[in-house]
Design brief:
40% helix; TIM Barrel; alpha/beta; 12 strands; 296 residues; 10 helices
């Protein structure tokens, strides 16, 4: 890390984060799970929706969004902001996100610290970006432009990556910290991504967590992946491993997490397994709240 980097750990969260609602344990909405989700609405605290699915909704999508909004708090989660592109963000895209955020009255919205667009080409992947001062300035400008256009606060997610971009001038923890603090954004801390990166690139995930401003964590993603030729892939296809639950307990003991999300995308299990994961996450949040109360 650069000598002048001083991470803020366990500080006081910004006032706008302290004012956000605590949503509990939720699930990423996926249409193959729609019937089960609606049948178990009382056991799911909120839903995260993929922004791109509802930016220009068809009649069916508009009705679906309305029905979900009647039963759940909805959080838009985007894939296409591409703050790591070396060009301004698409204004039409951000305006559409702003309309969606207002439509569902979302308390916050999120996207990834990645590049997904090159010129007019959508590369279809969350690509890592060079961790340089020049890229930091580009990301900062793009996020500030997006934040100015959307009424709700913005939180940014760390991605999983198998390739490290060459020419890094700082570590990922420092880069992520600088982005969050220089843009006054929150963090969407994906603990499965952190777990996968720490195994694949051989570093200590707890050192990473000790180097970022945990007070800016608003939401956490958890789930499991699979190994392919010795590489852990964040495929959102298996139960959350013990290592990720332990990371969640570590973070929850050090800051108030507003929301934990189970992010299942492939090989959907019996829905009872998903409900068990939600209950486990809710228990961890409850224990951390109880400990904070006793400590106070």
């Amino acid at each position: 890390m650069a000598d002048n980097f001083r991470p803020k750990v366990n500080g006081l969260p910004p006032s706008w984060i302290r004012g956000l609602p605590s949503l509990g344990a939720g699930l990423g909405f996926r249409r193959p799970l729609a019937r089960e989700i609606l049948s178990h609405a009382g056991e799911i605290d909120f839903l995260e929706i993929i922004s791109e699915h509802y930016l220009d909704p068809t009649g069916f999508e508009a009705r679906e969004l309305m029905e979900l909004g009647e039963r759940f708090r909805l959080i838009p989660h985007g894939l296409s902001l591409s703050p790591g592109s070396a060009e301004p963000i698409r204004e039409d895209y951000v305006r559409a996100v702003a309309r969606l955020v207002d439509r569902v009255q979302a308390p916050w919205w999120s996207d990834h610290l990645a590049m997904t667009r090159l010129g007019r080409i959508d590369i279809g992947h969350l690509a890592p970006i060079p961790l340089t001062g020049e890229m930091l300035e580009m990301v900062r400008a793009n996020i500030q432009q997006a934040r100015a256009a959307v009424s709700a606060p913005f939180i940014i997610e760390n991605i999983a990556y198998t390739l490290r971009m060459p020419g890094a001038e700082m570590g990922e923890a420092e880069f992520l910290s600088r982005v969050a603090e220089q843009t006054d954004s929150g963090l969407l801390l994906d603990l499965m991504n952190l777990h996968a990166n720490s195994l694949n690139h051989r570093y200590d995930p707890y050192e990473f967590l000790a180097s970022i401003p945990l007070e800016r964590v608003v939401q956490v993603h958890i789930i499991g992946g699979h190994f392919h030729h010795g590489v852990l892939i964040d495929s959102h296809s298996h139960r959350t491993p013990d290592e990720v639950w332990q990371l969640l307990e570590y973070v929850a003991a050090r800051t108030e997490i507003k929301a934990v999300l189970i992010e299942w995308d492939e090989q959907f299990p019996d829905f009872g397994v998903i409900l068990e994961e939600l209950a486990h996450a809710r228990q961890i949040l409850a224990r951390s709240e109880e400990a904070a109360y006793v400590g106070a």
